[in-house]
Amino acid sequence: MNRAGLVAARLLQIVPTFLAIGAVVFVLARLLPGDPVSAMLGDRATDEAVTRLRGAMGLDEPVWAQFLLFVGGIARGEFGTSTAMRVPVTALVLERLPATLMLTALATLLAVTIAVPLAFVAATQAGRWPDLLIRAVFQVGLSSPIFYVGLVLLTVFAAGLRWFPVGGYGTGLAEHLHHLLLPAVTLALSFSAVIMRNLRASILGVLTAEFVDFARSKGLPRRVVLLRHVLRNALLSTVTLVGLHVGALLGGAVITESVFAVPGVGRLMVDSIFARDYPVIQALTLVLAVIVSLAFLATDLVQMWLDPRLAR
Amino acid sequence: MRGRAPLLAGGAILLALLLCALLPGVVAPYDPLAFDYAALLQPPGAAHPFGTDQFGRDILSRTIAAATIDLQIALFATTGPLVIGTAVGLLVGYYGGVADAVFGRVVDLVVTFPFLVLVIAIVAVLGPGLGNMYVAVTAVGWVFYARLMRGEVMVLRGQDYVSACKVLGYGQARILLRHVLPNAARPILVYWMTDMALAILLGSSLGYLGLGAQPPEAEWGVLIADGKNLFTQAWWVAVFPGFAIVLAGIGFSLAGDGMADLLDVKR
Amino acid sequence: MTAPLLDVDSLRVTFDTPRGPVLAVDGVSLQVGAGEVLGLVGESGSGKSVTLRAITRLLRRATVTGQVLWRGRDLLIQAEPALRAVRGREVAMIFQEPMAALNPVLTIGQQIEESLAAHGTLDRRARRARALELMDLVGIAAGAQRLGAYPHEFSGGMRQRAMIAIALAPQPMLLLADEPTTALDVTIQDQVLKLLLRLADELGMAMVLVTHDLGVVAETCSRVCVMYAGRVAEAGPVADVFAHPRHAYTAALLRSMPRPGPARERLAPIPGQPPRLDRAIPGCPFVPRCGLVEPRCPTHAPPLVPVAPAHQAACWSSARVAP
Q1: ipTM of model
Q2: Spelled out in words, what is the top-level CATH class assigned to the domain B5-23+53-265?
Q3: Which of C50, C103, C154 is best to mutate for the A interface (most A CBs within 10 A)?
Q4: What's the CA gap between C14 and C12, in Å, rounded?
Q5: What CATH number is attached to the domain comprising C175?
Q6: Is residue C135 in a domain?
Q7: How many domains are there within chain C?
Q8: Is residue C70 part of a domain?
Q9: How many CB atoms neighbour CB A221 within 10 A?
Q10: Chain A to chain B Cβ contacts (< 8 Å)
Q11: Cβ separation of B121 and A31 shorter than 8 Å?
């Protein structure tokens, strides 16, 4: 199968995945205790009002019909109305999504920028003090809970030194970046530790590979050997890791948004869970799962592009 | 790092924490619940190395006492997934077939949802509290152990010594339990160590959010949440319990590294 | 006699391992003249591959002492830039396992051209033309397409040819070949060996061929150097050494080879194992397996001395050795 065929096959795989995610979310939502209708109308609702609303929401239909309604609704982009905030869920989610996406993108950028050069230094100096120091520092980062790091950074740099605003989001791109820098650093800390550890091991593995010796024996300049031969091969497994880590990153974003009061989908998720706002929970779970699926897809595609051995 | 150093260092840290967890009354200088209106919000000093909170409670003692809950979390949040995951992974990896195909789909599905979000969602449904947190983590977490185990078993089942066992006429159970499991178990044990560190991070995160340990249970995340609003005036209330979490994480990681070397497992 | 191109003198290589220092090469001396093909023969662990890599300082975590004179200059003390100018351009190397020695994410064309770019002043067009020439030289058909292919898309024999093409791109004067045919099918082995010999001849290139196969040496080399436990046991013209071995090890090695002739003869392997190299060996390392041991063998290391014209051996029992 040629490359185009492989890519197409991979893209098609996503359809059954999305359906499965939808089914899981649907089932989980139905398992939640409490009657959403009574919750919405309150204690003093009349039986008639409850029945009417039930009918309007389609809750008196058989389960399979409800599922079809659900899927149909998703296809049309309708997720219902938020019980806590009384606004259409779709609009709510779309309003909050950019902040989270920007946060995770910024965090990824920072993490990669920190991790790659340091992994290089650690690997080429393996066993000596720069390596031990780097690994020790990252080990501490890896062992630190995100909410703790966030809290410390917030207090020191925002509340204390006033270099950054104390949470929030601001308006306009420049303000967004300014507000999101601390939370992004918080997220990037543990993410970069994971990348660093993996890349370091990968580089160490490649450094002793025979093709590196062959490249050296050809009299190639050191820089060419390190970048073209060592790094290009070592990055292969790290790219996979980054892609697979998106789920954990989103989980971290949930906490970070809570600590820094960033109006993103992470914080919306937590708030909705506390408020038992089922339509929002349902929609968000779906959205998050879809994002992760797309990230996995992107990872596979990037891998296929970087490693010619996979295009078979 | 090579050699026994990481294992000993990690072990020492964990031992110290274990001591705090098992005998808080002996290790802690003050009663963690005792209010002291004469010493409200004291900064770290001779009398209170970690300072006091708004009720005069000694932070050091509270942190030590909280070790009990956090180490419990490390154990209880990981043992369920370990046992269930190992069992499922062993069977699925060895026998393959339809079960393996189904397992593959389940893994794909679970992995697509951010772990924390799933756990929070389940806990929210069941109600906040440690017990429900254990249920949530076990319900989702077994998949990772199972996946690891399956991978190991699949490699082993193709090995010559397994074929040799079959030729000798050993029963399936015997092959599985006495030959495959001990070898496949090594990476699982190393993973378990790291998972315990992750469990503490998760547990404290949930404690911070109010979904995990509930007052009056002391847990490091809960302690940090207590100190959250006081951060600008009394940073020590939230900072020191955080150190404990980091220390525990380092302890488990070092022990995990040491174990990996000892058991000859590639990380 | 003209000065040899490569003159290795008393080369010692010690590896720094977690279990202590290991002496892999202990006082090896050898010479290679222009256009000559030297066979470097020995069992696994004899130090032949290490010797080869030590010549162009490719070893890691190793202490290398001695002298490696390449056209009069000692490679062991050259600064990096000077060393890199020699590597590839004057002394090239090919490895045993081409799948491992070729970068999997670069095309063969890219790997040839980077060699040319590092050492020459050819522009892109000229490099491409030269690359095509090389494909032709090593006998790879459809050169133009093959240049854009990746290593995993080649068969074993072709991969080895590709590696040879890459190594020969800057027209080196000496080719160090580390067991280039060991990993290949027997039928392909022959083809590749013949290719190497033809190229050495056509390009006027000298070659050091490391192998454990005496048959290969007999067919391809003009001179042979037999190594054992990191030391040179015997060195000399191939015909002479094979017909009149003067080291107990060489003789035993020759005897242990299967030969065409009267059928159903028992093979005569050399009993025992090569020695461990993490402990110093005061005398001759072959003592535990040797049938001609003299009283001074275990305690006094025999020096490498001439035993016939251009033929040296390091054996106290040299005179008693019979083929």
Answers
A1: 0.90
A2: mainly alpha
A3: C103
A4: 7
A5: 3.40.50.300
A6: yes
A7: 1
A8: no
A9: 15
A10: 118
A11: no
